Amino acid sequence: MTLEGKVALVTGAGGQGIGAAAARDLAARGAQVVVNYRSNQQRAQEVVESIQAAGGNAHAIQADVIDEGQVLRMVEEIVERYGRLDIMVSTKGGHVPPIAGPRFAGKGEGHFAAIAARVGTRPFTELSWEAFAARVNGELQAAFTITKAVVPVMERQHAGRLIYLSSEHSRGPAAPGMIANGAAKAALNTFVVYLAHELGPLGITANVVSPAMVQVQATRWMQPAAFLERVASATPLGRIAQPEDVARVIAFFASDDSAFMTGVYAPVTGGFGLARL
Ligand SMILES: NC(=O)c1ccc[n+]([C@@H]2O[C@H](COP(=O)([O-])OP(=O)(O)OC[C@H]3O[C@@H](n4cnc5c(N)ncnc54)[C@H](OP(=O)(O)O)[C@@H]3O)[C@@H](O)[C@H]2O)c1
């Protein structure tokens, strides 16, 4: 799957997660990659340097994906520099504010209760409308804002690839307290199906890549060895995803190999969640 001559924007790529892995993978296949980040310039620069050290082409641009002005400026900068934009990978669902309200402590298993106490996940009975709406709004605002900005460029080219990161929580509870996240991602999945329908005639495809648990740096603290073993043993392929597993599927949807696929929801789970018992 070569991406020679293509220009790719990856949002939320300036970290150590799926976005950074996608940026590296697309660059390794020959794309010119724009590494978008929000605040951590040093991390984003490290991603760029790792791509360049491997012989690829990349540079970083700061923009908060829910800020329309910043996103438009970023896309203008890309078009001024390269004259085109072929691939947009949206990995970041905007701000995920800590959910205020009573703690989840004591509910569910100890491991999930500890996570909830730290990141603020809540069961429905302890969730305020404001917290729920903030999560759903952030997810959709990010996808809406970046898509609005890139579609005119892709329409002029009569070609473009839109790829969005969802989560298996969108298909049902895989852990307690994820109702806001699951509903936000489910809304994203449906948004992308409508995009695929409306943008197909413009030559643009839109697909969703949806992991179950991925071992990224940011969430290592919530994945002690015993928990990882439990998830791996419930996964038919016998291990937990690495960011590179997800990045390869993103590259497929960015490439000509998937040219006739649009509106697809692609789980990258190793089979986790297939069993009903
Ligand atoms: N990790 C998992 O287990 C997992 C599982 C299923 C689905 N997913 C989904 O996969 C996607 C990526 O997850 P991840 O865990 O790899 O992410 P991550 O490591 O938390 O992403 C970090 C990156 O996102 C950037 N970012 C955050 N808010 C931003 C904003 N408003 N605008 C622009 N950039 C922003 C950060 O930039 P700064 O540091 O500069 O702010 C950083 O570059 C998410 O949509 C997530 O829901 C993840």
From TrEMBL:
Superkingdom, taxonomy of origin: Bacteria
Protein name: 3-oxoacyl-[acyl-carrier protein] reductase
Gene Ontology molecular function: oxidoreductase activity
Keyword Oxidoreductase part of the UniProt annotation: yes
Regions crossing the membrane: none
Assigned protein family: Belongs to the short-chain dehydrogenases/reductases (SDR) family.
PANTHER family in the cross-refs: OXIDOREDUCTASE, SHORT-CHAIN DEHYDROGENASE/REDUCTASE FAMILY (AFU_ORTHOLOGUE AFUA_5G02870) (PTHR43639), SHORT-CHAIN DEHYDROGENASE_REDUCTASE FAMILY PROTEIN (PTHR43639:SF1)
The organism of origin for this protein: Thermosporothrix hazakensis
Record flagged with keyword Zinc-finger: no
Keyword terms: Oxidoreductase
InterPro entries attached to this UniProt entry: NAD(P)-bd_dom_sf (IPR036291), SDR_fam (IPR002347)
